[in-house]
Structures are given as structure tokens and as C-alpha cells.
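pinned: reference chain
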Amino acid sequence: MAFDDDGNRPQLIETIFVPRGAEEQAVRRGLARARAETQVRVVATGIGPLAAARAAEEALAAAPFGTALCTGFCGLLSPAFVVGEVLVYHELRREGSEPLFLDRALGQAVAGRLPAAQSGARGLASDAILTAAEQKYNASARFGADAVDMESFAITELLQRAGVAVAVARVASDAVGDDLPELERALNGSGGIDLFALALAMMRRPLAGMRLARNGTLALAALERAVYEIAAA
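pinned: its C-alpha cells
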């Protein structure tokens, strides 16, 4: 790894894509701890592939960049991993599409700064939140993926077409056997979350809601720590 004239490592990532809200704030805290908030651009996306693709298009139009990290939460599809672990993806899969392979050198560099991360993971794109354990087990069996999220494939597909090197590092926020509240009811049409609808979903399934809140706190701390480790000089 080359160093600049001040003896610092160059920034590995120029732009970070993350869903807006709590995940975005965790990313910004990690960058602030690493004193890299002025060197790395954070692009906050909506939830879901359409909102994520729109954010990627706007970011490309606003300013050129050569490296990007897609991060945030993921749901686990494999029992080999646990909540709070960071998964560095090797490839992305989506029904009806050819797999996307992430930039190998960038992924290795990201994993090298995350000593506790699980590298070589296979991510699955979903248009909806998989809230039932049965859905996750079925997705695992059908696609052979380790984790699922809604934004990484859409972002990576657009950025790779523009010649951007992309790495994906996602933090597991729910285990494969975890049933979740009906979170899809809380999503609005613009890729945001209706907080009142979210509260109702949590109340309908209080045990699942409490587990989700506990796991979310753990995952946010892991996300902040991961971004700090990636960005710290």
C-alpha cells in the first residue's frame, strides 16, 4: 500500500452508498472517528432497488469517482454467520440476471482492513424484505446465497457500467432463523420508512420486534466500527 507525502494511507474508498437513516448515521460516525468525513462522500439512498439505483445515477452525474463501497444491513441466509458480523461480498445474485462479481482487488483491500470480517460471501438481491424464516431458508436453497439485501445489486450494476470499482460490505442484522415484524408495511413509495407504520409492525409482533431492536443496536455498532476501520489512516 502506497502512502502519501504526509505518511498516511490513501483513502481506499471515495464514495460510500448506504440507506438513509440509522445506517447512514452509523457510517458518518465511523468516518468522523477516522477523521475521514471530508475525504469520503456519503450517498444516502432510499430503501429498495429503485431508490438505490436512482441515488447511484445522481451520484455519477454529480461528480466522477473511481471506487465505491456499498454498505448497510443485510439479512442472513446461511447459519454459518451470526448477527453483527461483517460480510464482504464476492458476488451478487438476482433472479433472472447473470451474477455480478465485485472488484477483487478492492474487496481484498476492504477485507484486509476488517480482520474480523467474513469475506467471499454471496449476496442475493431482493425487491422485498424477507421477514419470515421460511422465506430466507427457501432463498438460500434456491440461490445458494449467504445474505440478502435490497440495494447492492442495483447500485453495483450501474456503477460497474460506469467503470467504478465496487466493494460490498454488509453487516448482518438478522439471522436466517429469525422471523421479523412485517417491515414491508412500513416502507413508503419513495424508499423511506413510515415511523408510525413501523411502530405498529413492532407492536403486532412484540417478541420479534424486541429481537429486531436488539440486533439492530448490535449491527449499528458493528457498521460504525467497520467504516472506521476501512477509513482510518
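why pinned: Residues 206-231 form the longest helix (26 residues). Confidence is low (pLDDT under 50) at residues 1-7.
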